[in-house]
Amino acid sequence: MAVTAQPTPAVRLSSPQGKWILLTTVLGSSMALLDSTVVNVALPRIGHALDASLAALQWTVNAYMLTLAGLILLGGALGDRYGRRRIFVLGVLWFAAASLLCGLAPTAEVLIVARALQGVGGALLTPGSLALIQATFHPDDRGRAVGLWSGFGGIGAAVGPFLGGWLVVGPGWRWVFLLNVPLALLCAPIAVRHVPESSAGGSHSRRFDALGASLGALSLALVTYALIEAHGGSLPVALTAVAGLAAGVAFIHVERHRPDPMMPLDIFASRQFTAVNLVTLCVYAAFGGFFFLTALQLQVVSGYSPLRAGVALLPTTVLMLLFSSRSGALAERIGPRIPLTVGPLLCAAGMLLMLRVGKDAAYAADVLPAVLVMGAGMVILVAPLTATVLASVDTDRAGLASGINNAAARAAGLIAVAALPLLTGMGPEAYRVPDAFEAAFRRAMPLCAVVLLAGAALAFATVRRPAPECRHPECRMHCSVTAPPLEPPRGSAGSGAGPAS
Fold this sequence. Notes:
It contains 16 helices and no strands. It has helices at 16-50, 54-82, 84-104, 108-136, 139-169, 175-178, 180-194, 210-229, 235-257, 271-300, 306-312, 314-334, 337-353, 363-391, 398-423, 434-462. It comes from Streptomyces cynarae.
């Protein structure tokens, strides 16, 4: 049943209700954020505990990303029609139930299914987190509320790897997932009691593009499956790949001819929007492969504990938290072309420096320099990326543009996690054999660097300074690659999410 559109409440941030609203949105977004930052650290322990192959570990990451990327636009539309608080609370409870199933999973197969269900919950709660702030706070307080929300989210991102490593070493890897349950039990009642309901007026008559969402998710699922299982070279895998491409073509056909498509193709008439999304695909494919493989390399080859491996990557998040807003301000002065070119180049250099990380790698001499260079590149790159996406389309389509960019980033990451082991010759048991994994890692980092170089070249050739009247995001900070802040539209019916703010 649709919720009747209500006047936008004018809750002040300094009021008790305003503080409760901020708390519940931070808790909700932190669930998805913590989950995405801690799972990579736990992968080796999960594999040994469940006797899982490398392919099962890939699916442990990708099953979540698959449903989240495929359904996040639909999740925002559900909130607009049926009530943002209602869908947000449903997403929180769904996410908690799936997390409980993950924590209790007796086999790798059950864990993978539970992770896919987690992604569904994430697609419901993630768009609603910032949309609730946009819909409830007084306009004079909204920018500060968004900044606080992003800042606390950055703290959560910084704590995530440390917390994940501590949980894996201490109570065990299952608590990486079980931790979400008490967070949900705290978040949902606060939302019901203190957050006013809101919906988008005029959107009730719009039809959901369920067919488009299904075809998009199906295409990603089939292609991902084919890449992960391609080492067998069987006919069913080849047929799956063909079916995935066919589903992708069908998705484009449906989006071109539906009256209310999930992803209107005419938005790509903006050459700048198309170019920046191609840069996004390159950048986030490299990032996805880097974080997946590096967490394994540090533990499998370098002998780091899960806690030490999680802390080892912490500087990238800290740098993002401290300097992303300054990077966004610099890009506004000089334009996005230089940051979107220099950022990927620095990230590529950081990945090449990771080639020094092998057996008995010293953190200060081998790991830290690579992580610092990588973090510097991310600082320069990520915040201007969102501003350029939003500036490349009309203001009333900014939420849609942001949502498409978010989906592109997540899809690029899951494809990279699926493809890199295939391209580097990792066998099903590679993560159990340090020498084999190290050899594949040394092939993977240059591949990721090449993809980043392609993104830098594309940005240099195609990205231009936005028009003076371009839209800028209210949230200028970006603190996590895997769970980026959102940027919903002002005064429009949709909600969106973008890889950077």
